[in-house]
Amino acid sequence: MVEQVQISYFKILMHQKIIRFLAPTTWLLVFCAYLQAEPSPVGKRLVIHDFNRALIADNLRGNAGTWNLDPNDPKSEANFLLDPVNRRGTEGYGLYLTYKLNPEKKSQNGFWMNLNRLDARGYDHLEFWVKGDAKLGFAKSFKVEFKRPKPGSPGESLKGSFVVTGITDQWQRISIPLNMMNGITEWKDLEELVFSFQSRRADVKQGGYYIDDIALVETGEPGPSIFDPVAMPKKKQWEKEQGGEKAAIPLIQKRLVGWPTVALADKRSFPKDDHEFLMRVASDTWKGIDALSDREHGLPLDTVRFAKGSVELKDSRIGDYTNVTNIGLYFLSVVGAYDLKLITKEEALEKLKKTLNSIESFESYQGFLYNYYDTTSNERSSNFVSFVDSAWLTSGLMVTRQAFTELSDRCTALINRGNYSFFYDDVEQNMNHGYYVHMKCRAEYDYGVLYTEPRAGSFIAIGKGDVPEEHWFELMRTFSEDSEWQSMMPIHRQPKMVLGHEVIGGYYEWKGMKFVPSWGGSLFEALMPTMVIDEKQYAPSNLGKNDEIHAIVQRRFALEELNYPVWGMSPCSMPSEDNYSEYGVKILGIHGYKPGVVTPHVSALALYVTPKEATENLRKLAETYDIYGEYGFYDAVDPMTGQVAYKYLSLDQEMIFIALANYLGDHCVQKHFGADPIAQKAIPMIHDENFFEP
User: Fold this and answer.
1) DSSP-assigned letters across all residues of 297-311
2) Contacts from 66-73 at CB under 8 Å and sequence distance 24+?
3) What is the pLDDT of residues 3-37, one digit of tens each?
4) What does pTM read for this prediction?
5) What is the C-alpha separation between 161 and 143, in angstroms, rounded?
6) What is the pLDDT of residues 229-271, one digit of tens each?
7) Cα dist from 57 to 149, 305, 387, whole Å
């Protein structure tokens, strides 16, 4: 009777969508009750292991065993045996797992099972039975994880995990929706099932569990998914009133501040003087940022695509939605435009107030904005709250309150509304990618590498006091030599002490140049944070030096190794199709993106560290290819074929403009950011480390 009440309560909540209004802790208790009480499903069932034979090989004929993250740590280990007494049912065995975790460090171990490229697409839940060992003791939670090969990345795996909580010394049936293990979206080619015990998660550092009857099941109720769309009734109603989605397109164009009159600029019109040339690029780019924004709501549109040689509406596509990073960088752009005297103070304030009005009215979660909003209706179009995008919005608000004190109270209220501890993974000591609100779960992955774009978000989160300083020093400078899939092997990867924190250092080397790698080898990851953080000034022997080397290697690799006439690779639009892809210099990244097209925003960012070479590259791009329009550079070009991606992406145009504003305006945006109390608190943290000396 109790079980049936629990089941009915959960199903009623789901059916009536009341679950979305529950506090996360309340939701978790209800969900756990559902997992433990729901009767066994009536659909398909695939037994991974029932432990009914005195062999550890599972029912899929795969091998199995224990593992230890640090095999040389005597205080960390896991073991198993097949127990004929503690089992489910009257026959066979149960799995008995014991673990010991080193309480003095971040240790991890567990049990793995080889799944032999299992196709699980016909199932929607993972099920198993578990109880803790009352005599030895046990932690109340552990992590369960599936792994599958990452397509196109030999040696790497995608993972989908779930943290099981509320374990007791009595048998419980755990039933986990595969959708909750959101790091895997295509459930085929599964290579491993892993049970993971972590010292920073386990409340008991040594203990044991009994596990039995591990299976994949089909319930017919997979639950919510990360792909679930968001209803936008106001936008749908507006489109209906205009005669449908297609009929609404001209009206969306009319909502914009402006629209280009010509597709391509006259190449003969570019000034010969470098400073005047860069001012021309800055002016044209700002004109486009301003024009391609919603006049009523003050929001930059994410994407506008044109056809070569035409800006006619019939040849164009307008993406009337925006991202939180776009909005944060729009704030920075307005400040930069004022500092470069492209707009007056009154014009800047009018624009900023209009945008503040919009975001103050946006639906939010835990004080943070959702990742996407419709620029016509101001409705959210995403279920996801993103850490890194939220941080870029905070950076824009920080700069705005320093540049225009009359807006300080409004900006401060928005900054203080969200606490970045919401994204902090205390077990891994990293910032998580974000949170799926409708599923009440975090994203699968954390940001674990220091030299990538999210370091600006970590800087802000620590400066706010929301996240401990130790997080910065837990971020990976390099990966161990065991990570054979990485593009190069690190040199001098050894521990060192910085501000009382142990840091694992190391660097890569190419043609005598030492550098700490990014993830993909793109200058977007390397230099985007420098739009606000003056790393040459505040971190000269680590981030600042690394910024310069990354720009140099990017240029030399493209010109010398790939024989490109121009350089600058980062994620951007694909000229050959209406899509977006990741590009980079592989040796600069731990993973390393593929080489390919060149995007102008790279050269703009590189003005910070290699101004002469970056200016020359921008000029060569403008004069060699049909890539420059009325609103500045289009998004990308294939340097070998000359094919251009005729798009203005808000993110990339704003990066171009902010980088130009800093270069032409004496670090104006960086100075506003550096004067903010949040930055002032974090700046000392990044000063002392030397990347290239033990």
Assistant:
1) T--B-SEEE-BTTB-
2) 66/97, 66/109, 66/110, 66/111, 66/112, 67/109, 67/110, 67/111, 67/112, 68/108, 68/109, 69/107, 69/108, 69/109, 70/107, 73/102, 73/105, 73/107
3) 322 333 333 333 333 333 334 444 444 444 444 44
4) 0.92
5) 7
6) 999 999 999 999 999 999 999 999 999 999 999 999 999 899 9
7) 21, 55, 41
